[in-house]
Amino acid sequence: MTDVASWGWLQPTLYPGWTAASDDNLDSRLDGINVDISNFYEVTIRDADGDGIVSDTDADDGSNVAPGEGVIGPSGLTTVREVARYDDSEALAGGVTYTGLAAAVMLFDDGSWAVRLHDETLPPTLWPRQVASLRLGTWDGVEYSGAYTASFDEPLCFATETPLRTPHGWRRAGDLRLGDRVTLFEGDTARITWRASATLPARSRRHAPVVLPPGAFGARCRIRLSPLHGVLIRSSAATLLFGKQHVLVAARDLVGHRGTKIVPASRVTYVHLGVGRHAILQAPGLGCESYRGGHWAETLVRGATRSGMRETPRYPSCLPVLTRPEARVLMNYMRAGLTGAPSLSQRPYTDAS
Predict the structure, then answer these.
(1) What are the Hedgehog/Intein (Hint) domain coordinates in residue numbering (predicted)?
(2) H or E stretch including 108?
(3) Do 345 and 262 form a contact (C-beta atoms < 8 A)?
(4) Potential cystine with 271: which of 4, 121, 173, 200 (Cβ 3.0-4.6 Å)?
């Protein structure tokens, strides 16, 4: 059994047109509606059989719900009836309108329903509690048999085998402990003040590790990162487009460029490392961010093995973090010839070093 902390907006009324006998309540009737965001609540997603999926109970998609599986909220365990996704949703937060978001709607067996934004479409600067209004986009027309638990909590971290530079040579991310020092992009060092690890199902293409092969963006060995892990890109194109030579791009937004791929696995162990502030750590030939934090990232590490500070850290970003559309523009510019990659001050990487 796997419990994952999550969040959402519980709606104050039963689903419009709710029919207990129907397996197809969720559809385009929600297109364009304004979501009631007055009831932000935190819940536990219970994956009773540990298969990485919280299955729904509707009978027309072949799903099979394990006993005790569902969502644990203020009123106890509620079983999921149907799951739907609405693309091109729109949120207002901090006076900024965010478009192109994906929203998940869960309909429960008692006719209640809740809405949650998908992590993979959330800009790094958008905190769910800051949302002042939310409008659902367009139903994608897919009959889902449940929801991947990883879709509730996007990790922001290294695969455990990732080599990281320290003053004493290269060490696997999974072998680093509290108090160990790591070498930063600028060449100075910082002490690890917070650490967490979690093993997750990684069969879904959306949540599987992103693999950068040797030579991709300066990488000197095969490197696996979580999809939202920020990778340092230095480019004259970034200066032209965003006024900063160094920017962070989510690993998922590098897919399709220079051989970078998503490679599913049955399970993957991710390691989060905090150094008391947001900083850039050195993987072989590649700058990768330390743990930055955020509401959706915090929900993952609540269930992880962690040590260090009692509370999950939150740090302001040390570099501009590009949104997905911004990253797409930058990659197109770099492909056209305005290339660049970080130059890390480090000796050549070998497995033995």
Answers:
(1) 157-294
(2) strand 96-108
(3) no
(4) 173
Are residue 177 and residue 296 in the same domain, yes or no? yes
pTM reported for the whole predicted model:
0.58
Range of the domain at 131: 2-151
Position 164 pLDDT exceeds 80: yes
* Tokens of residue 155, six digits: 């990790």
Which residues 6+ apart lie within 8 Å of 54 measured at CB? 45, 46, 47, 69, 70, 71, 80, 146, 147, 149
For residues 335 and 332, give the distance between their C-alpha atoms in angstroms, rounded to a whole number. 5
Count of CB atoms situated within 10 Å of the CB of 323: 19
DSSP annotation of 151: G
Report the run of H or E that residue 297 belongs to, with start and end: helix 295-302
Give me the number of domains the chain comprises. 2
Determine the pLDDT at residue 350. 52
How many of the other CB atoms lie within 10 Å of CB of 45? 25
CA distance 114 to 105: 6
pLDDT tens per residue across span 223-258 = 999 988 999 999 888 998 989 999 999 898 899 999
Please count the other Cβ atoms lying within 10 Å of the Cβ belonging to residue 94: 11
Q: Has residue 23 been placed in a domain?
A: yes
Identify residue 291 by its one-letter amino acid code: Y
Tens digit of each residue's pLDDT (9 = 90 or more) over 54-67? 788 877 655 667 78
Residue 242, classed as helix, strand or coil, is: helix
